[in-house]
Amino acid sequence: MRKKRRTDVFSLSFLDCMSCGFGAVILFFMIINATVSEQADLETSEELSEVRKIEQEVLEGRKNLVVLRNAIREANDEVARADNESVELLRRIQELQEQLAQYDGTTLAKRESEEKLRSDIKQLEEARRRLAAETSTAGPTGKQVRTFTGDGTRQYLTGLRVRGKRTLILVDASASMLDETIVNVIRRRNQSKEAQLRAAKWRQTVASVDWITTQLLPDTQFQIYRFGDTAEPLIAGSDGVWLDVGDGTQLEQAVKSLRENPPTGGTNLYDAFSVARRLDPRPDNILLLVDGLPTVGVNAPAKSTVSAGERRTLFGQAVRRLPGSIPINVLMYPMEGDVLAPSEYWRLAYRTGGSFMSVSDDWP
User: Fold this and answer.
1) DSSP secondary structure string, 67-101?
2) What is the pLDDT of residues 89-138, one digit of tens each?
3) What global pTM score does this model have?
4) Which residues of 67-93 are buried (b: 16+ CB within 10 A; e: fewer)?
């Protein structure tokens, strides 16, 4: 009996076909994968470039943000400073308005007193001019150790009591002695030292002291102090010590010191009058060259401006520092705005038995 032949499905031919198919699939996959990988690398490179560009823009944006924040901070600081300056200006305006209100509130009695004072001064000036007209020639210099050359043959006749055994001269050397108006005082205060020394009002003050020293006799004693924020002697190292007139050498030195140092600071009349207490023995004559009521007292002022009422209070405190029985001779220089000063200094001279002179533009 013939055996049946068994057929094997997985023959060599079948396996060859399968191998070829798988190989084709793998080859196809490799070709596709290479293409996809190249495309992916290209897209990734473009995306990385875009990312770097965005990162650069972000970095620039942050820098600009920092600049803007600094600008905003500076602008806020400027606004704060402007607000502070505005507040300060408003405060100053309010203080000035209060001072103006005090000036406007001057009573009729005070105004009448000032008018009477002006009338008395005018009468004294007329009497002085009559005496000058009656005197045709200058008298002998006598024992004067210094001379003063005026304009032509003018006679320097005044009501001042210059001579004494011990004469104390107090010179106002505050910044207000630079000019007669507040605006010009502020302007000159910011100029150079040479420009301040050339100020007409200060040169007139120095000339007045120069003339006064020519009236001192050689056998008498003197002391000259300048006062601004504080009082100090013109000759260094002579605080509280009387100086001999002698041959006039020390007088020349004192006037030279006054001429070389411009006025500055406030007006401390309290410290100036305290000098009379420190000198031993006490002076028997005081000459005060001043242009207004004090602005500085025992303590430093709490604010930059001082009202008229406060200046009168400081004047009263300073007067109480004066020893008794000493005549005060006042030379009053012009200064705008201080309407109470002439009457207060006139009363001081009158009470102490001294004299009061309103200095004209061409004296001495």
Assistant:
1) HHHHHHHHHHHHHHHHHHHHHHHHHHHHHHHHHHH
2) 888 888 877 777 666 555 566 666 777 777 777 777 776 677 666 554 44
3) 0.60
4) eeeeeeeeeeeeeeeeeeeeeeeeeee
What does the angle CA 285 – CA 294 – CA 184 come to, to the nearest 5 degrees? 115
14-37 pLDDT tens trace: 677 777 878 888 887 788 776 666
Instruction: Identify which of 332, 67, 73 has the alpha carbon closest to the alpha carbon of residue 205.
Output: 332
Q: Which amino acid is at 154?
A: R
Structure tokens at 304: 């930059």
56 Rama sector, left if φ>0, alpha if ψ -120 to 50, beta otherwise: alpha
Terminal CA-CA length for the chain = 174
Which stretch of DSSP H or E encloses residue 329? strand 328-332
The span from the CA of 154 to the CA of 138, in Å, is 8
Q: Round to whole Å and give the CA distance between 198 and 188.
A: 10
Rounded distance between C-alpha atoms, residue 164 and residue 169, angstroms: 11
Q: Give the gyration radius of the chain's Cα atoms.
A: 47
Burial class (CB in 10 A: 0-12, 13-18, 19+), 48: exposed
Amino acid, res. 60 = E
Q: How is residue 351 written in tokens?
A: 């009470």
Q: Return the beta strands (E) in 76-157 as ranges.
A: none
Distance of alpha carbon 147 from alpha carbon 60, whole angstroms:
82
DSSP state of 172: E
Q: Sort 116 into a burial class: Cβ within 10 Å, 0-12 / 13-18 / 19+.
A: exposed
Two tokens at 77? 């600081």
Is 363:152 a contact under the CB 8 Å cutoff?
Answer: no
Contact present, 233 and 239 (Cβ < 8 Å):
yes
Residues 310 and 299: their CA atoms lie apart, in Å, by 13
Cα distance between residue 269 and residue 314, in whole Å: 8
The helices-and-strands tally (H runs, E runs) of the chain is: 9, 7
- Which of 299, 288, 294, 298 lies closest to 311 in space, CA to CA? 294
CA distance 173 to 361: 18
